[in-house]
Write a structure and sequence with these properties.
5 helices
Length: 98
């Protein structure tokens, strides 16, 4: 394990830990619900990393990096310009539980 991989794993673990606590304490979800909601953060790198290794040998790292940057820009633009309908918000949120 190199330093970058170790640092990335530590940061993702810390972010997921804080997010799970937020979902439980503030949003009122159960521990199981909160962990299922954040499972994609943990499982995605485990699925994508071996695929990226195989694709890097075939396509080259430059193609993979440019594809990742393009996908990141597309998601950022989608997040910047997409607006949910105002009527949907009050019905989707879960009430706080004490």
């Amino acid at each position: 394990m190199n330093a970058v991989n170790g640092r990335f794993s530590s940061c993702v673990f810390g972010a997921v830990f804080i997010l799970i606590r937020f979902l439980q304490v503030v949003q009122g979800y159960s521990p199981l619900e909160a962990s299922v909601m954040t499972m994609s953060w943990i499982l995605a790198p485990r699925v994508v990393a071996p695929l990226a290794g195989m694709l890097a040998a075939r396509l080259g790292t430059r193609t993979l990096i440019m594809t990742g940057v393009a996908l990141g820009v597309a998601v950022a633009l989608l997040a910047a310009f997409w607006r949910p309908t105002p009527k949907a918000w009050p019905h989707n949120r879960k009430p706080l539980q004490k």
